[in-house]
Structures are given as structure tokens and as C-alpha cells.
Design brief:
alpha+beta; Molybdopterin biosynthesis moea protein, domain 2; three-stranded antiparallel beta sheet
Length: about 325
């Protein structure tokens, strides 16, 4: 018969395992394990097997092991885990992609009935329709002010009803009604609360950011830097092109308003002296951009109009 290890031996083994995982893994997901059963947790372990390890334990024991290991190794980054070990939490050590691991964990949620005294994590709405209950069960609906009618010998709910609001405790009447209707409104599983990555701690919402989101935020930051640089006339890489363009516009304005000129301003003065050239320039640019047939047709029409007037003049005889 095998001798069972003592509590002290279990603590030593747990401390050794946690320290080994801290040395081996640099990424940790801190997860909440409220209302998660042992069978469900075992399925999660199987699903993550390969590059991730789930470790549960008492918060005091985990904090003690982390603190001692940090002192022994001199790695103060481990201490960032201590504020996260609050409540019924566990640790998932992983070498895989954090987003993929968190998505895999989210798959293992199971439905649960509404138990009396439980705080509702979501709103519970009873849908309309036939309940299959006999008319003697209408007392449950009357207590909860749910409008019903008798249809073909069974109770039918007329309109959808918000039975329980998020954050409210489940009462005995609500729990009994949901049980009779066979509704399991809640689902539970490991919920990622925080992410630890090489000493840095951040929210799991960061994992949902895409490359487009990052580019959008980067572009917003660049625009803010550009605006600030232009406002205080401080040259930066982002603001330099705008500064050069603005300076060029100022030079053109001076050249147009005075007799001073330079090669780049000659063309602008030429267009201002003869505005009809603007139309020709537009037609040429339209032709270059792929709308050549339309531009050519427009130019052809303009050319044909004087010809038609000339033909009309020639149609009159001097002797008429």
C-alpha cells in the first residue's frame, strides 16, 4: 500500500512545480475558475495539452512560491503576478500564441441552471411560446408577472419577459420556473482575467486587436504628432512634408502677387493669365487617368460647334 504524502510534502512538491513552470514559461494567463467543475477542468487540460499547462492552487501558496522564487532568482518581474492572484483564480502557462490559447479556453464552456442565490452574469429573458406546462402551473407565471394564456390545454407565454437582470441574485421563484421550462441560462468556464508576458501585465482585450486596429492607432498617433509639430513650428519627420508644401504655397502666393518669379511659379502665372488653359489641363489629366474617350468626345464636340455654325451660314444664298 502506497504511503500518502503529508501536507508538508505536498506543499514542497507544489512549490517545486510552480518554480519550474516559472523558469520554463514566460507567458501566463490568469483565469477565473468560478463554477467550473472538475470534469470540465479536466477537459480543458486535455484541450490545451501540448504547449500549455493549467495550474490551480490556493492563492496564499501561489503567492508564497512566487515571492520566494523571485528572491532566489533575482527576477523581480515575477512579482507582477502577485496582485493578480485574487479570488478563485488559476494559472495557464503557455508557449503558444496567447490569442489562440485564450480562444481554446473559451471553447470549454458548459451550460448551467440558475441556482437560488447565484448572481446572474447575464440578463435572462424568457422567450414567448408554448411552455408545455399544464394550466395548474400558472401560479409560477403570476408570481413573476409573466403574461400567459391557455392554448390547447397548455400554458403559453404571450410576450418575451426579462426575468433576471445581470448582477441580480436568482430568487427561488425564478429558479423554479427556469427549471420547469428546461432553460439553462448561464454558461461557465475559465475566463481570462489578465495576461502576463515576460514581466508585462495587460488586459486580455489586447489580444483581440488586429493589424488594422494597430495601423489605425499608429496613424492617429502620427496625425497628432504632425498637428502638434505644425502648431509649434517644430520640424519632425511626419511634419516636414507639410512644412515644405506650406512654404512652397507661400512662395507661390508672393510670386503671384508681385513681379518676383521663379521657374516653378511661371506655370502658375501662365494659367492665371489665361484661365482657358485650366480646361485643357483638366481634359489632359482625365485622358491620363483612363477616361480618354470621354475627354476626347468632349473636345471633339467643342471643335464641331463652330463648324456647324459655319455650315449654317453657307446654307443661305445672297440672292434669297
Amino acid at each position: 500500500m502506497a504511503i500518502k504524502p503529508t501536507k508538508a510534502e505536498k506543499k514542497v512538491a507544489y512549490d517545486s512545480k510552480l518554480c519550474q513552470l516559472l523558469d520554463e514559461y514566460s507567458q501566463v494567463l490568469v483565469v477565473a475558475a468560478d463554477n467550473v467543475g472538475s470534469n470540465q477542468l479536466q477537459n480543458i487540460r486535455k484541450g490545451l495539452r501540448g504547449d500549455s499547462i493549467v495550474l490551480m492552487g490556493k492563492n496564499t501558496m501561489m503567492k508564497r512560491s512566487v515571492r520566494i522564487h523571485s528572491e532566489q532568482t533575482g527576477n523581480k518581474a515575477y512579482l507582477n503576478l502577485l496582485p493578480l492572484l485574487v479570488g478563485n483564480v488559476g494559472l495557464i502557462f503557455t508557449k503558444g500564441d496567447l490569442k489562440e490559447v485564450s480562444e481554446e479556453v473559451a471553447k470549454y464552456k458548459v451550460g448551467a441552471p440558475a441556482r437560488v442565490g447565484l448572481v446572474a452574469p447575464i440578463d435572462v429573458i424568457v422567450p414567448p411560446g408554448n411552455t408545455g406546462l399544464d394550466p395548474s402551473q400558472t401560479s409560477f407565471f403570476q408570481v413573476l408577472n409573466i403574461p400567459t394564456k391557455i392554448n390547447k390545454g397548455t400554458v403559453e407565454i404571450i410576450t418575451p419577459v426579462e426575468l433576471i437582470k445581470k448582477g441580480d441574485k436568482v430568487g427561488s421563484s425564478e429558479a423554479a420556473l427556469l427549471a420547469k421550462l428546461g432553460i439553462r441560462p448561464f454558461s461557465y468556464g475559465l475566463v481570462v482575467l489578465s495576461v502576463y508576458d515576460n514581466g508585462s501585465v495587460f488586459s486580455p482585450q489586447v489580444l483581440d486587436l488586429t493589424e488594422d486596429d494597430l495601423l489605425e492607432k499608429f496613424a492617429l498617433g502620427v496625425s497628432m504628432v504632425t498637428s502638434l509639430s505644425l502648431a509649434i513650428s517644430y520640424p519632425t519627420l511626419a511634419a516636414a512634408p507639410h512644412m515644405l508644401i506650406n512654404a512652397y504655397k507661400n512662395l507661390l502666393a508672393v510670386a503671384v502677387a508681385t513681379d518676383y518669379s521663379f521657374p516653378e511659379a511661371e506655370k502658375v502665372k501662365e494659367y492665371l493669365a489665361d484661365p482657358s488653359k485650366f480646361a485643357v489641363a483638366v481634359a489632359v489629366s482625365a485622358a491620363d487617368s483612363g477616361s480618354a474617350p470621354e475627354a476626347a468626345a468632349a473636345v471633339e464636340e467643342k471643335k464641331e460647334e463652330p463648324a456647324e455654325e459655319s455650315d449654317d451660314d453657307m446654307g443661305f444664298s445672297l440672292f434669297d
